[in-house]
Each structure stands twice: as structure tokens, then as C-alpha cells.
Amino acid sequence: xTKVSALYIVKNEEEFLPFxxxxxxxxxxxxxxIDNNSNDxxxxxxxxxxxxxxxxxxxxxxxxxxxxGLQYVTGDWFMFLxxxxxxYPDLEQxxxxxxxxxxxxxxxxxxxxxxxxxxxxxxxxxxxxLRSDHFLPSRITGGIEVIFPWVFVRFCIMKVVxx
Length: 163
Fold this sequence. Notes:
- The protein has about 160 residues and is of the alpha/beta class.
- It has helices spanning about 15-25, 40-45, 60-70, 90-100, and strands at about 5-10, 30-35, 50-55, 75-80, 85, 105-110, 110-115, 120, 125-130, 145-150, 150-155, 155-160.
- Residues about 120-125 and about 125-155 have low confidence and may be disordered.
């Protein structure tokens, strides 16, 4: 069976992170949470979920945090998530069919955005195969591109490909 890992980079996200993890937890092989020096209950709330593997970092470079997280991913596919994103409830049923395709390395996904209490009306890149060339060079902020002031597009789910 194909394994999918979720990857979060968080800091002071105690309000939203539990909802986001709960929405994807059953569909994931593991949930990697990189905590960037939270001073609230974010780490404690994250580890309440059995599949969460929590790591801490004081890195100030966003790409360094993502790359650290990618080192811990053990799934065949992974998805980048923000703590305030919640996927549609059919994720668990649809995911196995999506990641079983050999001709696809990534998917655009729709999700609910909790911080702005809305559904993102633009598909967001979702699942991707993990490859060594997905690691981000230092000083890159994770390839974030603003589509609208409230909608961000980023690469969040990739397939793992051995190099």
C-alpha cells in the first residue's frame, strides 16, 4: 500500500492545528510536525494524535524548516500543509486511488481555510511524489506565490522518488 506523509511547519498554531490534523489523520501514514519555537500549546496539542512525529527547530529560514521536515518523511508521497487548512471529508476515500497512479507526480487540491473561514476557490497543488530535487535552496521562502490577497498557491503534496 502506498504511504502518504503530511508535513506541517508550525509556530503558535494551537487554535487551528488540531482541526487540520484531525481532517487528514486517518488518511495519512504519518504526520510530521516541525515546531518552530512555539510559546503556546501547539506541540502538546499536536502529539495528542497517534501518528504525529514532533520535531523542534529554531531555524529562521523557512526553506531550512521545510527541508528539515522532508528529511523525516517516510511516505511514498507527502503533502505540505498549513495549520489552518482543512481538506474535504472525502480525502480518506479518494487518496488511495490518486496516489496509485504511476503517470502522475502531483495533484492540485481544494481545502477549507480556517483562518478566513472560507473555501479556497482556487485549486492548490496538493500531493506530490518525493524527489531529491524538491528540496529548497537556502533563502527561498518555500515557493509561495500570491494568487489573491487571501489565497496562496504552494507545492504541498509530492511523490517520493529515490534518486
